[in-house]
Amino acid sequence: MTRNVWDKRAVHIAGVAETALGEVRDQTELSMFAAAAREALGEAGLTLRDVDGVFVNYMGEEGSVQVAEYLGITAPRYADSTDLGGAAFEAFVHHAMLAVAEGRCEVALIGYASRQRTRRFRNMAGSPVDADSLAAQFQSPYGLPAPIGHYAMMAARHMHAYGTTPEQLAEVAVAARAWARLNPKAWSRDPLNVEQALASRMISTPLRRSDCCLVTDGGGAIVVTTAERARDAAKPSVRVIGAGESHTHWHLASMPDLTVTAGAVSGGEAFAMAGITAADVDVLQPYDSFTITVLLALEDLGFCGKGEGGPFVSGGRLAPGGALPAMTSGGGLSYNHPGALGALLLVEAVRQLRGEAGERQVPDARIAVAHGVGGFNSTAATVVLAR
Amino acid sequence: MSHGDAITAPFWAGAREGRLLLQRCARCGAHQFYPRPFCLACDHDTLKWEAAAGTGVVYSRTEVHVKVREDLVPPYTVAVVALDEGPRLTTLIVDGDGDPGAGCEIGDPVEVLWRARAEAPPLPVFKRSA
């Protein structure tokens, strides 16, 4: 049972929506987000004219500003463009929770859309760095692929320290694929087993193609508000009962321990606020940018001890029918990864709590956790939701 | 011509002389890398530059199988090395001739070499110690 220590006004997620997903050629990022925002607000029984808090990043300069203008929101009371990469959206829920509870805004619109696949943004060198920056001086000259090389270094260290195996990492990808096969919107739905995963192309040891997330177009919208403002909602709202955020490092060599992530702090903060432990979680949406990202998060959030992630994910524990349903949309590995996955983790968590996830529904899910990760496993933000 | 920025320039001046320079706190004696204008360990603001031994141990490593830079042909190994003085740095593992392509294992002892660059000071890279 949970003992929620949040003593302020109850804050809810009252609407969620995905943008168009996959390869999106007939829309812009702004039009994609507008459609998702209107759909999510519609679920909440609200419209764009009700929005007084805007939480957006990675859609052009000045974060929320261009998006709000496009949506016709010209006088929000609260604006937030926190830059925590893929974890920004869980951090946005954290911030919106506090802002709504304090009355600094009442209807917070959170989200993002990207066409990174169609527009071919990605390359192995990562984003260009300022020639005078510390990264350009001390990291870029060594040819570490970004972001995968950073995660590969963490996986290699974890294997060395704890005996984690490539087969155990593959189990994460196999579980995600098994969930994706139950989701009609998932990008990759062909069957995948451990043997097939281990036969995929090596990219940066020990990580293979099958350890890496997709590169797709997509995004999502989330509406955070009060129970009162959600009274006309078309669907049940879910409560936000805990949230936390943190970050550890930017340059790989500055990460204090390559096997301990910012999730140790963000998860601890969120679970303490919610009054839960990992044992209370019915469904988990971990940020599966890479298989190792999930394994480290499971340890740092307390689902297992440090170093126990490999054995923990074995035997299909995260897969359909397993003891800890995780990545239930198919995740970034097999459903969709639009560059910043955090918004879609929240969408899936809410749908699971509402019981509207179709074939992939986790029976009687009451507590869901969305755990965002960003940068080079640099940032984390954790949200605990309850119905 | 100086390289780097106002805080890191002494490191790159050392690199031109084949010296791996670290900052060391005048008060607590802690070494640090990359350079800052204060001590990360005790917050003191007087730091001196000292030559490191140039030896360390591989903390983690990855063999890269994709092309990232024009001047590096895969596969090659990038490592995080823990210097004997304490700080870690990201680096390239090279063979005894200084060429990329050599591998290493976590825990291997390594020592610094300098890789010449056309437009910048030599880059500190590491080879496995004999």
Task: Give the SSE map.
The complex is a heterodimer of chains A (387) and B (130).
Chain A (H helix, E strand, L loop, with lengths): L10 E8 L10 H15 L9 E4 L7 H8 L6 E3 L7 H14 L5 E8 L19 H5 L9 H15 L3 H15 L13 H5 L3 E3 L2 E2 L9 E9 L11 E10 L15 H12 L8 E4 L4 H10 L8 H5 L17 H4 L7 H13 L12 E8 L4 E8 L1
Parallel strand pairs in A: 2-3, 2-4, 9-10
Antiparallel strand pairs in A: 1-7, 1-8, 4-7, 5-6, 8-11, 10-11
Chain B lengths: L8 H8 L4 E5 L5 E2 L14 E5 L3 E10 L11 E8 L4 E7 L14 E7 L7 E6 L2
Parallel strand pairs in B: 6-8
Antiparallel strand pairs in B: 1-2, 1-3, 4-5, 4-7, 5-6, 7-8
Question: What tags apply to this protein structure?
Answer:
heterodimer, A: 387 residues, alpha/beta, Peroxisomal Thiolase, Chain A, domain 1, nine-stranded mixed sheet, two-stranded antiparallel ribbon, 12 helices, 31% helix, 17% strand, globular, B: 130 residues, mainly beta, five-stranded mixed β-barrel, three-stranded antiparallel sheet, 1 helix, 8 strands, 38% strand, Thiolase-like (chain A), acyltransferase activity, transferring groups other than amino-acyl groups (chain A), Thiolase (chain A), Thiolase_C_2 (chain A)
Structure explained in plain terms:
The complex is a heterodimer of chains A (387) and B (130). In chain A, 31% of the residues lie in helices and 17% in strands. Chain A is an alpha/beta fold. In chain A, the strands form two sheets. In chain A, strands 3-2-4-7-1-8-11-10-9 form a nine-stranded mixed sheet, sandwiched between helices. The longest helix of chain A has 15 residues, at 29-43. Chain A is globular, with a radius of gyration of 19 Å. Chain B has one domain. Chain B has one helix spanning 9-16; strands at residues 21-25, 31-32, 47-51, 55-64, 76-83, 88-94, 109-115, 123-128. In chain B, the strands form two sheets. A five-stranded mixed β-barrel of chain B has the order 4-5-6-8-7. Chain B has a three-stranded antiparallel sheet with strand order 2-1-3. Classes of the chains: A alpha/beta (387), B mainly beta (130). Chains A and B meet through helix 4, helix 5 and strand 5 of A and strand 4, strand 5 and strand 6 of B.
